[in-house]
Amino acid sequence: MRSFERQGAGPLGDSTEIDVLESNWNTVIVYRDCQWSTASGVNGLVFLGISAAEIHTAAVMHRVPADEWPRVLFGIQQIMVPTARALLNRK
Predict the structure, then answer these.
(1) Whole-prediction pTM value?
(2) Which of 23, 58, 76, 89 can bridge 30 by disulfide, Cβ–Cβ 3.0-4.6 Å?
(3) Interior CA angle at 84 toward 54 and 74, to 5°?
């Protein structure tokens, strides 16, 4: 298990340390460097998601082996994004 420290304000607070299973480490570091797609709504900024192209670019940048890309993509788009989107869009 590795420790990941999140810096900056957000849904998890100012600074939070999270234990990450080794098998999920690449997913976390790729997610950390992805840019969210957003839209401007009546109540302000709305977080939509993260594109597969954005995830791919971050995976290449972090030199994630190509055979891990499908698992990283699934982890981000199907697990992390829906959870984070619910927190980020909470008003």
Answers:
(1) 0.78
(2) 58
(3) 50
